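EI: anyone free to look at a 485-residue chain?
SC: sure, send it
EI:
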Amino acid sequence: MKSVASLSAAVAVLSGTTNAFWRMPCHDRIGLERLDPIVDPGTASSHGHTIHGGSNFGMSTTYEDLRASDCTSCQFSDDKSAYWTPSLHFVHDGGMTEIVPQIGGMLSYYLLYGDNLKAFPEGFQMLAGDTRLRNFSGPVPDPPTSSWTADDMTQVSLGQKSLGFNCLNYNKQPEGSRYRHFLPTKEFMDENCANGIRAELMFPSCWNGKDVKSDDNKAHMRYPDMIDGGSCPEGFETRLPTLFYETIWNTFAFKDKAGQFVWSNGDPTGYGYHGDFMSGWNVDTLQSAVSTCTNPSGRVEDCPVFAGSLQTEAEQGVCKIQNVMKALSADNCSGPTDGLCGNVPVQYGPQYANPLKAGAQGGEAVITPILSSVASMPTQSYAPAHSKVVDSYGGGVSVFNVKPPVVPIAKPTPALAEAAVAAPAITPPAKAEDANPDDGIISHTTYTRDGVVYEVAIKEVINIVTVDSKRRRHAHQHRRNIGRN
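SC: here you go
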């Protein structure tokens, strides 16, 4: 086994730079509620969320409220920030809906890309993703970053590429993070994703340097032109830590059951996946961590700033929302129940979804979801491949093969729609010869096997696999340095 130092050196050689980071585990959610004080302040949110972090969380939460939390579900006891995303649900053929089991809470990565990073200021909050989106405007799969055009680097395009759905199977080579920007079909997950789906979301990190929030919760922030790295747009030169959320959902628990997976905002495609962040950090503590937590392991245990204030998983797991909202007492967001929490309709697209209504009381007459047999989606196959990268770790993950969307004809039932849904346009993948073999690491990902968490740093390379055929592949490095859960 290589040491952490030698492994990090190998990764630095691949990437051309040392990208420090730490991951903040939040072992359990503090609630599954229709709460979103950023988008729907002062009222019940239009849809349910899985919420992690500081316990003093409600309809009108402020920075001061989070700092006054009795506890946090995150490992560092003074990280009182709030992290939340939509929850994933399974809608059975008859319309009965239940939560998909969530595995291990949430991992929030603090990636320290860029120079002169500043801590999130007091009162800072932001949003990533678009809850109403039901399509993807770019080529599938993503071309290599060396081939990106101006169209790839618009804020709209970068935002769409900032999310991903990683098919987990710990008996196979792992998929790279943010390769697939949509939720796979249930048939694909039944066949390939024995350990579930990991939902991933990258937040923008370029700040205008003055506003801690904005009317749309996005205008004060921008993505750098490579999403996680690269250059910031003019007027947004101040770099903040790059947040990256990971949540794992046990979709395999519904293997061979008739129905469909749907996010709590009524999105069966995944294109409308999104996340919210409200800082609850002591600013001086976070600034010290940004400057000090550069151990390549990414473990909070390996940063002196967090020493003496780390919680066990059991301590994290008992933290829950302090004050349950009476207005939401009739909600049943976990199910089983008819329909989605908040009476949310399922909207397929590819057109932009209708806005959802905030403020509805729980217990109202529910909408039984009308499901087509499957959301109309492209197919990106699980295709791990051998790599010729010269190192002792070896292995590789290929760019996925893409097939056109397929909408099978369903047997007529009361819960199935009669008409098929129009398919989004698919752009052919970029040619392998367009790739740049000197590109650096393009993403990080993690997976667990035999109780050990591995980190994967992924780099694009080109391999000629036959005399007359080329395929673009991804080399990856494994870090087995995190310890047992």
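EI: Confidence is low (pLDDT under 50) at residues 1-18, 383-485.
SC: 👍
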